[in-house]
Amino acid sequence: MPHVTMTVNGNAVSEEVPGHTLLVDFIRQNLGLTGTHVGCDTSQCGACVVHVNGNSVKACTLLAAQADGAEITTIEGLAQGDNLHPMQAAFREAHGLQCGFCTPGMVMSAVDLLQKNPNPTEDEIRGWLKGNICRCTGYHNIVKAIQSVAQQSKTEAAA
Ligand code: FES
Ligand code: FES
């Protein structure tokens, strides 16, 4: 069995796993980080999005062994203690979650979007979220949440 070593939310982890273990299953089952969700297992829904070396990736599309040596951030790694990450706070504020099942993947994708494009248009936000399916919100409040974080950062940068 391959020996897999990676950093997850700042912690070094090292385990032997069967070669066919998906990264999402490794995160949820081996590490007990169940904030990363599985909505489809067919790479469509985006509920499983985590950051791999700073980029949002569907964790059901990657084997754990392929992430050997990588830096992984899951939804559990975003908040600082009791302080929510600004994107998490904005989702809550703008009512960007209803059932909440898609939320971890949405938040991880949204954080990556603003890292790459701090000032996206509404179309760019909607385009970026094409790989994330939400069955509840109609996306409007999710888009508003992302826009409010982008606006906040702009205001902070100008201050
Ligand atoms: S569980 Fe990975 S895309 Fe749906
Ligand atoms: S809030 Fe339910 S799927 Fe998005």
From TrEMBL:
Keywords: 2Fe-2S, Iron, Iron-sulfur, Metal-binding, Oxidoreductase. GO terms for molecular function: 2 iron, 2 sulfur cluster binding; metal ion binding; oxidoreductase activity. The keyword Glycoprotein does not apply. Residues 2-78 form the 2Fe-2S ferredoxin-type domain. It comes from the Bacteria. This is Carbon-monoxide dehydrogenase small subunit. It comes from Dichotomicrobium thermohalophilum. Pfam families: Fer2, Fer2_2. Gene3D superfamilies: 3.10.20.30, [2Fe-2S]-binding domain. InterPro entries: 2Fe-2S-bd (IPR002888), 2Fe-2S-bd_dom_sf (IPR036884), 2Fe-2S_ferredoxin-like_sf (IPR036010), 2Fe-2S_ferredoxin-type (IPR001041), Beta-grasp_dom_sf (IPR012675), Diverse_Oxidoreductases (IPR051452).
